[in-house]
Structures are given as C-alpha cells and as structure tokens.
C-alpha cells in the first residue's frame, strides 16, 4: 500500500477505498465481540488484529489524502468523502471501545 498513488485514482475510488477498509475493520470488530461472547477469546483477539491491519490501510490512504492537500492539490469535497471520513472515525471509536470492553471482561473473567 506504500506505493499507492492516489493521483491515478478518481476521488470516488479513493473514497470507496476508505469505506471498504474501514468497513472491513468495523465488521471484524463487531465479530470479535460476538466471538468473545461465545467464549472464543483467541478468535476475538485474532479478529481485532485483522481489524487493525485494515485500519492501517485506511490510515495510509487518509494520510496520503492529507499530504496531497497540504502540498496544494485541491481535494474535492463531496458527500461521499464526508461519508468515508465518518465511517473511518466511527470505526476507530468503536475499535477503542471494544478493546476496552474485552480487556475489562478478561480482567473480570466474564
């Protein structure tokens, strides 16, 4: 993903990449909570690691977008971009909350 050149993609493609990777992470985070609830702690931990990998890709895309704008390239604002940003930020919040919950459950042996 380091060699990703966003200039070769349309704004819509970049936005959909953000949605894709943050959406994949969100699904894995929710599934991790469900796995833990069913007593499959190892699977839950593994899903959170996978979610982090998806979020790393989303962060790389987002960082490249910020770099482009900082270098003077105009970033076109659109509802799709706003949706992609919202998706990423809410997934990051969800990840932190679920990790804290699972740590608490583990401490309390729940």
TrEMBL record:
The keyword Metal-binding applies. It comes from the Bacteria. Coiled coil: none annotated. Its cofactor is Mg(2+). Transmembrane segments: none annotated. Keywords: Magnesium, Metal-binding, Phosphotransferase system, Sugar transport, Transferase, Transport. The active site is at 83 (tele-phosphohistidine intermediate). GO terms for molecular function: metal ion binding; transferase activity. The modification Phosphohistidine is found at residue 83. InterPro entries: PTS_IIA_lac/cel, PTS_IIA_lac/cel_sf. SUPFAM superfamilies: Enzyme IIa from lactose specific PTS, IIa-lac. One of its GO terms (biological process) is phosphoenolpyruvate-dependent sugar phosphotransferase system. Mg(2+) binds at residue 86. It holds the Pfam family PTS_IIA. Binds 1 Mg(2+) ion per trimer. PROSITE patterns: PTS_EIIA_TYPE_3. This is PTS system oligo-beta-mannoside-specific EIIA component.
């Amino acid at each position: 993903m380091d060699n990703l050149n966003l200039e070769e993609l349309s704004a819509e493609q970049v936005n959909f990449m953000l949605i894709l990777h943050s959406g994949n992470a969100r699904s894995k985070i929710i599934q991790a909570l469900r796995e833990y609830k069913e007593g499959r702690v190892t699977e839950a931990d593994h899903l959170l690691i996978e979610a982090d990998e998806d979020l790393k890709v989303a962060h790389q895309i987002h960082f490249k977008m910020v770099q482009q704008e900082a270098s003077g390239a105009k970033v076109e604002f659109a509802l799709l971009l706003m949706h992609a940003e919202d998706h990423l930020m809410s997934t990051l919040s969800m990840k932190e909350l679920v990790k804290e919950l699972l740590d608490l459950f583990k401490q309390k042996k729940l």
